[in-house]
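Quick one:
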Amino acid sequence: MQNAIVETNFSFPRQKEVYKGKVRDVYNIDDEFLVMVVSDRISAFDVVLPRGIPFKGQVLNQIASKFLDATADIVPNWKVATPDPMVTVGHYCEPFKVEMVIRGYLTGHAWREYKAGKRKLCGNPLPEGMVENQKFEEPLITPTTKATVGHDEDISREEILRQGLVKEEDYIQLEKYTKDLFQRGTEMAAEKGLILVDTKYEFGKKDGKIYLIDEIHTPDSSRYFYADGYENRTEKR
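Output:
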C-alpha cells in the first residue's frame, strides 16, 4: 500500500489552476487543455478513504481511455493523448450542468425509490410488479444535477429545460449520444460476459461543439452484472 499514489503536486507551463477531486487531480492549462491524473485514492459514498490501492488509477484511466477510443465515432470526446497510464490530456470544455445517467435495470438508487413506492423516476413512469435487478423494456435516462458539494439530485428533462440548465437542442443531442453510448457499452460488455447495468456520462462544449468528457464505462462510473446466471438470480418469487 506504500506505493499507492494518493497525491500529486505538479506545476506545468501555462497552468492556471488545479482541481483536486475525490480521485482525480485535474490541471487546467490556460483554459485550453486539461491534464487529468487519476490517483490511487479510494472514494466510497463521497468519502475519500485514508489509504489508496496501488495501480487503481492506472486501471481506471486505461479503461476510460479504451472506451473513449471505442466510441469516438459516436460523439467527439475530450481525449487528446494518454502520455502515462495514470494520465489523460484533453480539451478543456465548459461542462453542462447535468450528468446524463442511463439505467438498463431496476437496481441501486432506482430500486430504492421503487421499493419506497415511487412509480416515476426523473419523469419516467415505472410499471407495477417489477423486482430488484429486473431489466427495463427500454433503458431509462435519469439525469442528475451536478452538485459541487454533497450528492447529485434527480431531475427530469422538463425541469432541466424549465430551469434553462441546458438548451433544448443541446439536450436532445445529449439524449441521443447517451443512448448510443450505452448501446455500444452494452455490446462491448456482452463480449466479455458482462451486463452494463447503468452508467453516467458527462458532456461539455468547446467552440460551440459538444464533447464527451471525463471517464466512461469504468467501475467508478458504471455498474456491471455477470451475464452468466443473471436470469436465475432475478426470477420473480
